[in-house]
Amino acid sequence: MMPRFPRRTALAVAALAVPILFGPVAQAAPLWHPNPATDGLKAFEGIEADRGNHHPDRKYVVVEGDHYRFNIWKDDRDTTGGGDRQRTESKGMVQSGTTLKMHDGETWTLSYEMYIPGTLHGTSKFTHIFQTKTPSTNGGPWVTLDLTRSGGKEMLNARAYANSGSPSIAATDLSPLRNKWITIEWTFTPGSKGKAACVIRGGTGSGAPVAAQGSMTNVNIPDQGDYVRPKWGIYRSVESASSDILDTYLLFRNYTAARK
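The line above is the sequence of Polysaccharide lyase; the predicted structure tokens follow.
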């Protein structure tokens, strides 16, 4: 049985001051602001989970009140990678039937609240809980939000994943951010030498304490003549320690996206 959504806990998160090299998340009217109760899964271009149809009885992405729940089981396997990975993801942004597309040279802000349970671990191999890709070429992932592990240290790490060395844009300890709603704010300017910024807040709303923030230029995030598409959920290698690959889930709510 999948673990049930626990009650919110109030944990303090220490702020980490990192300079932002270009503007904060804009307050423009959002182009994307799905309501789970009324939009359901039509808020996304599609869902990618159990693409081999091995577990037709399982519910991978579901609406629970005001949020979306993304479930994954340790024995899930994706059709890519020769059996070395698993995936429960949504892709894209759809508002009133229209797909929103991020193009080179445009500046976009994306914000959402996320709940990471104790059963979702940082791993020594990749675990993306957000990624950006180019649909027509399957290019990327370009920029990601990852759960990483080095020994006993688990991190929440926003990364310029397609740049050499996959450098961090913003990173912080994972432990204080678990079992509570937190806020993630992105700013993207796609391009082969684009920009990306991330603010990780240890609570909900723009006034919540900052756990980590940072920005980077010359970020490889090209639309390649198509568009850059965000994806949310759990996409991870199963080649990490088996103690880190558990039946688990991830919650999202209050998605917004705007173009400056």
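Note on the example: The CA atoms of residues 85 and 238 lie 5 Å apart. Residues 36-39 form the longest helix (4 residues).
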